Amino acid sequence: MRRTFTAVSVVAIASLLAATPAGYAQATGSPSLPTLGDAAREDLSPVFERKLGEEIMRDIRRDKDFLDDDAVLEYMNNFGNALVAAYPGARGETNADFYFFAVRDPLLNAFALPGGFIGAHSGLLIAAQSESELASVMSHEIGHVTQRHIARMLGKQKQDALIPLAAMLLAALASKASTDAAMGVFMGGQGLAIQRQLDFSRDAEREADRVGFQIMGKGGYDTTGMVEFFQRLQSASRNYSDLMPAYLRSHPLTSERISDIQSRIRETPYKQRVDSIEFHLVRARVRVLQDESTQGLRDTYAAFESQLNQLSRQQKAGAQYGLSFLELKRGDPAKAQAWLDKARATLKPPEKGVLSAAHKDSNGAAMFASLGIEIKLAPSQSAEMKLQGLKDAELAHLQFPLSRGIARQYADAMIVNGKLDDAAKFLRDQAQLYREEPKLHDLLARTYAAQGKITLQHIALAESYALGGSMLAALDQLNIARKSKDASFYDMSLIDAREREWQAKRREELEEAKKN
Predict the structure, then answer these.
(1) Is residue 99 helix, strand or coil?
(2) CA-CA distance, 397 to 409, in Å (whole number)?
(3) Among 46, 80, 343, 352, which one has the highest count of C-beta atoms within 10 angstroms of its own C-beta?
(4) Torsions phi, psi of 117, nearest 5?
(5) For residue 102, which of 290, 265, 378, 235 has the smallest C-alpha distance?
(6) Residue 56: count of CB within 10 angstroms of its CB
(7) pLDDT per residue over 413-448, tens digit each?
(8) Read out DSSP for 294-340?
(9) Residue 475 neighbours by CB distance under 10 Å
(10) What angle do CA 329, 331, 337 make, to 5 degrees?
(11) pTM for this one?
């Protein structure tokens, strides 16, 4: 999936996957997707749309370039869902549940998948110079979901679209190896249907601009950020290969679109927006995660050193936080702690006078606390330092009870410090509250393994695999659990119940695949 992010319109990918469910199942190993139904439908049902998005997300989450970082994901979802909440009609007629995430890719791009899943490239997060710029892109993608652009496009698909859409996908993959090969594949699939796809895409982009402009305005962001960022995107697009067809780009940018947004800005009162410190901290974290090779970390270090000279306290603190995270990645927790202390000192509010808006609204406390815990729990740390990490994690969980990342860090700290019974109890309670969170079951499996409870370890792994959509792997784990010597009567009953449930689901998927 990663390679398709950089070159192919995600709307086109979704069209291809939805129009050929059997082909998608073959390519990804996913058992099946529901059928489109009546070809005359003008859009997809909300249930099918969400199902399709979930299937695609399962593959994205398994990709090594999915940024599965708790701090980044929490920021993205807090930020994105605040935009959704600010605009009453943002969820659209389907009342969509939104999920925001990031993928490791240096190109400036963002995309919406069916069902309310919205992704951003790491390059886009780094390039955004303000939260208003980021809000403009996220609001634009929310606009695609609100207006059901993907569902409308898929509902209008005809068989003549399959060949050019397949050609677009193949060309994007081929371009990684050979530009000439990509052009050859693409030329073989040209036709009138491509122009229809392009026309729809341009209309959808203008409509998403309009809705996105309203969303970011309602959210209190500076609407000039939309023009500023789109102009940066337009400039960046000139650096792409001249041989790559324009309609392979995710978001066709035109002077007409930018002019339309500028005219809307002139009719809107100016709003100044102070960026949250989390914005700068997340950008720094993503910069480190984008390229963790030795040379990549050297380049990132140089970028942070340059950023330290900025007059803005937020930017300086962001660079110091980034250097702390970078040193942790290099395996030097002492240097990491030193840079984290400097970042905290840079943002320390004045002892006298009125606090700034940035300090009133957000001081990055949760992210600072989380990185501090990461540092203290590093493998090379002493037992005393790891115990302090546990104390910090317990305090942070009490202070930020809604943070899923910190909750899991607290469990991890208990495991690291040998508090296995406490960890198991905490994780079982968490798994009851957050039933769709595979990471909790992974931590439970780790805890049970340390306790020597082999049956429970494999049951926990089975739950994790099932939540991740790997039903065969989940059933395999149940078989291992059943054969374990420490399986109790209760364990066997649970294994049998889960096996019946998942086998039934597996049969349904296989029957669906036969229909397709």
Answers:
(1) strand
(2) 9
(3) 343
(4) -90, 125
(5) 290
(6) 24
(7) 999 999 999 999 999 999 999 999 999 999 999 999
(8) HHHHHHHHHHHHHHTT-S-HHHHHHHHHHHHHHHHHTT-HHHHHHHH
(9) 17
(10) 85
(11) 0.81
Amino acid code (one letter) for 383: A
Single-letter amino acid code for the residue at 260: D
Q: What is the distance between the alpha carbons of residues 320 and 516, in angstroms, rounded to a whole number?
A: 54
For 430, other C-beta atoms within 10 Å of its C-beta total 21
Query: What is the identity of the amino acid at 31?
Result: P
- The answer to whether the CB of 474 falls within 8 A of the CB of 466 is yes
Backbone phi and psi for residue 36, each to the nearest 5 degrees, phi listed first: -70, -30
For residue 190, give the DSSP letter: -
263-270 contacts, C-beta under 8 A, 24 or more apart: 264/210, 264/213, 264/223, 265/223, 265/224, 265/226, 265/227, 268/217, 268/223, 270/222, 270/224
What pLDDT does 464 receive? 96
Which of these, 332, 328, 434, 318, lies nearest to 367 by C-alpha position? 318
**Residues in contact with 214: Cβ distance below 8 Å, sequence separation at least 6, in sequence order:** 87
Measured in degrees and rounded to the nearest 5, phi and psi for residue 112 equal -115, 135
Nearest to 323 by CA among 302, 309, 345: 302
Q: How far apart are CA 220 and CA 86, in angstroms?
A: 9
